[in-house]
Hints:
Elements: H1 7-35, H2 42-53, H3 63-92, H4 103-133, H5 148-152, H6 161-172, H7 181-206, H8 216-233, H9 235-246, H10 257-268, H11 277-309
Helix pairs in contact: 1-2, 1-3, 1-11, 3-4, 4-7, 7-8, 7-9, 8-11
Amino acid sequence: MSSFQLEDFAAGWIGGAASVIVGHPLDTVKTRLQAGVGYGSTLDCIRMVYQRESVFGFFKGMSFPLASIAVYNSVVFGVFSNTQRLLRQQRCGEPEASPHHSLSDLLLASMVAGVVSVGLGGPVDLIKIRLQMQTQPFQEASLGLKSRAAALGEQPAYQGPVHCITTIVRAEGLAGLYRGASAMLLRDIPGYCLYFVPYVFLSEWITPEACAGPSPCAVWLAGGMAGAISWGTATPMDVVKSRLQADGVYLNKYRGVLDCISQSYQQEGLKVFFRGFTVNAVRGFPMSAAMFLGYELSLQALRRDHAVTSP
């Protein structure tokens, strides 16, 4: 029996769409805290976004992630599940031969998913952050450079996702779409290990041995806890990634990951790398809970439908 299954990709797409809808408003707050200026706290950021841009400000840049992150999560979850199944097949002879998960298989499958996530998700994340950040108050850098903000006046730098993509490619080439990819790689490889591994073991721990699989409540709880753990621990490198990707809307301030870390530390101290920690952990719970619940329920429905329609 082949270990490759397409249902994982379809279920990942549904779960990804659910996670975007649930998590995008807090994702906007997180990005503003990490790469913006003038915010004293999380609540202060929420208040300022609402006062300046109304409730629609929290959904800025959402259309692009909704259309693309669903596909991105589809691939990530599909790659993780099928890599894990392939490793189990190599180890046991059959992909479903062992009811227990191997930690080494989970870690390797998570790392593969992390690498794939950067290849697909780098441009998606970049466009999302550029659209979220383009209305931020601009502080003229002390580099004697004329900012694009001054040339544009009060107008947003980008008119939408397509204009954002074409502007970046025209100015920086295709490589510009992968600005911050190295920081994203350093965030996502350990991040996905702390995402999938806790989910698998927590869902197994919550589920009674008599049950064939985790209940929706167990999936929701394990998924939410895994998301909070993963996003909380990923915050320092997430700050660096957000700053690198937001850089370039008006000025190019950072030369790379190490330069971004150095400048951020010199200007704001160690605490800067924990900006958005609370938002990351809080937002990680409902977003990941929705992701895993949508994924698992969709996967069950697809497999049940496949079993009914198969001769």
